[in-house]
């Protein structure tokens, strides 16, 4: 129990659209969950950038971050992440500089290299620019330059943005991102909630190659996992059917709003799809308080992560908030 008390706990929210909900209702649910997370002592509430998906409404990520930050008072709010190839560094510096000015010392900027969408949509977002030529590290350094007060004499400046106190994080789902985060001396957040395959290799690389920087003196590892808690294991696994259906929809390329457990069709899953599904959800923690305590305790012992970010894909909003409560009790 003492080990878990040393671990920070946070939330990742994709603003997932429920079957039957409007976009306005979807955003209201996001804010309600953020308020609950704040009351329960969660460290940060992150929103992730996705595009051209019928089931995800977090495409205008910085706007949604402002909405959540404006409706809360103390919890850190940020991106998990902004897909930097879809934007210019100057544009992101201005957006997050504005957010920092509005909500001082509460804004996080997690940065990813993936498109967060399909290749056709990505090409439109990037105005046809090729992805293979993109230099992620160079763009991050340019972003840092815009945030720096040392940029004040340059012809192009980020106003707002210059001098902003926005913490940067490197997001990733592979060993490439681990090397980059280590080289830049930045915190590293791994996307274990959908791509856990390289997690253990990636954090080992990050630790062994980490270079202290003015931002961070030692490695800081965050991992996003799927987590669904309920009063009983049986209830938790029932609630998780929505999550598994969502992943099955990704595998079968049938993006659609999430459905309640009783409307899932997991029984139609082929053996090949089951194999892929098992791999995608390997870092999932599902069960009662006692079950999750044992699972998280073993996980933290084996990985020595500094922070756990939970992605909780539950249809019933009351059950989702209850899951947040149960999980928070594990870390207090």
UniProtKB/TrEMBL annotation:
Superkingdom of this protein's organism: Bacteria
Pfam family, one: Bac_luciferase
Domain Luciferase-like per the UniProt entry, residue ranges: 9-248
PANTHER family on file: LUCIFERASE-LIKE MONOOXYGENASE
Family statement: To bacterial alkanal monooxygenase alpha and beta chains.
Descriptive protein name: LLM class flavin-dependent oxidoreductase
Source organism of this protein record: Faecalibacter bovis
Organism phylogeny: Bacteria, Pseudomonadati, Bacteroidota, Flavobacteriia, Flavobacteriales
